[in-house]
UniProtKB/TrEMBL annotation:
The keyword Ribonucleoprotein does not apply. This is Ribosomal RNA small subunit methyltransferase A. The gene is rsmA. It catalyses: adenosine(1518)/adenosine(1519) in 16S rRNA + 4 S-adenosyl-L-methionine = N(6)-dimethyladenosine(1518)/N(6)-dimethyladenosine(1519) in 16S rRNA + 4 S-adenosyl-L-homocysteine + 4 H(+). It is found in: Cytoplasm. SUPFAM superfamilies: S-adenosyl-L-methionine-dependent methyltransferases. NCBIfam families: ksgA. Residues 36-212 form the Ribosomal RNA adenine methylase transferase N-terminal domain. Gene3D superfamilies: Ribosomal RNA adenine dimethylase-like, domain 2, Vaccinia Virus protein VP39. SMART domains: rADc. Belongs to the class I-like SAM-binding methyltransferase superfamily. rRNA adenine N(6)-methyltransferase family. RsmA subfamily. Keywords: Cytoplasm, Methyltransferase, RNA-binding, rRNA processing, S-adenosyl-L-methionine, Transferase.
Length: 291
């Protein structure tokens, strides 16, 4: 098999050899630290019976390590210029396949069906392009793909928001969306020095274990997320004011206080203090009233 490429020297040599200049617009910050790669790969609980779906293989540093452990690796890369390089770095790993495409446009359910036949469990493992972290993760979650874990390197600030419990400044609609579908765990904080080129922010590896079923009972998921979103529209305002602005008119507004009480929520609270269970209750009460 090809040499491991996760070192600054090997990475720079390869980029030079292929005359490749990295595109900031595609979030091309390549990992050059074997220890961090190790932490990512071990967090994913892979073995030869399992598969890894990688998003953005770059020049293949993580792909190589995944291919050593997983039975099957499929990596979706948007930048065509990287294909010859990946062919070189993935030589000797026949279980690894690169697919050219924009992960936001690819039909991932079809890709999984096609590419992971006979594989027991599939996890997404990636060092994500930071400019599209949230859209990519929301796509993976909302499409309810058959995934075991999602282990990804993302901006530390975004990881903190995803894993945040109620009550603090990091807690918001992203926390609730992620925690509705998954159990989050921050695996490690990563300094910007382990990338070429170095990004301006610190990163974190987050492990999302996909739940078999949501932790709360929600009748209309779209409406539940709509209520959550509305409750955080103006963080400094009360839940009462945010909901009034979104769902009520001057005439219907007097009913809101009673509805909040029916859901067991003090109207003077702020959105950031409500648990997921409270949002579920609130959305059930509001749905019954508004529809
Ligand atoms: N996995 C490599 C590593 O860890 O060194 C590269 C990670 S780099 C942060 C992100 C990679 O995602 C780049 O190779 C970039 O070209 C690719 N990428 C960016 N946008 C993408 C998209 N929409 N779909 C698929 N790949 C994308």
């Amino acid at each position: 098999a090809a040499l491991d490429i996760a070192s600054p020297k090997r990475t720079n040599d390869l980029l030079r050899k292929h005359n490749l200049t990295l595109k900031k617009s595609l979030g091309q910050n390549f990992l050059v630290d074997p220890n961090i790669l190790n932490k990512i790969v071990s967090a994913a609980d892979l073995d030869a019976s399992k598969g890894a779906l990688e998003i953005g293989p770059g020049i293949g540093a993580l792909t190589q390590q995944l291919a050593k452990i997983a039975g099957r690796v499929v990596a979706v890369e948007i930048d065509q210029r990287l294909l010859p390089l990946l062919q070189e770095t993935l030589e000797g790993y026949p279980q690894a396949t690169v697919v050219l495409g924009d992960v936001l446009k690819v039909d991932l359910r079809a890709l999984i069906k096609e590419q992971f036949q006979g594989v027991s469990k599939i996890s997404v493992v990636a060092n994500l392009p930071y400019y599209v972290t949230t859209p990519i993760l929301m796509k993976l979650l909302e499409e309810k793909l058959p995934l075991e874990h999602i282990v990804v390197m993302i901006q530390k600030e975004v990881a903190d928001r995803m894993a945040a419990p109620p009550g603090g400044k990091d807690y918001g609609s992203l926390s609730i969306a992620v925690q509705y579908y998954c159990e989050p765990e921050i695996v490690t904080i990563v300094p910007h020095t382990v990338f070429i080129p170095q990004p301006n922010v610190d990163s974190a590896v987050i492990k999302l274990t996909v739940r078999e079923r949501p932790p709360v009972e929600v009748e209309d998921e779209a409406f539940f997320f709509d209520v959550v979103q509305a409750s955080f529209t103006q963080r400094r305002k009360t839940i009462y004011n945010n909901l009034a602005a979104k769902y009520f008119t001057k005439e219907t507004k007097p009913q809101l206080e009673g509805l909040l009480h029916e859901a067991g929520i003090e109207p003077s609270r702020r959105g950031e203090t409500l648990s997921m269970e409270e949002y579920a209750r609130l959305s059930r009460v509001l749905a019954r009233h508004l529809n």
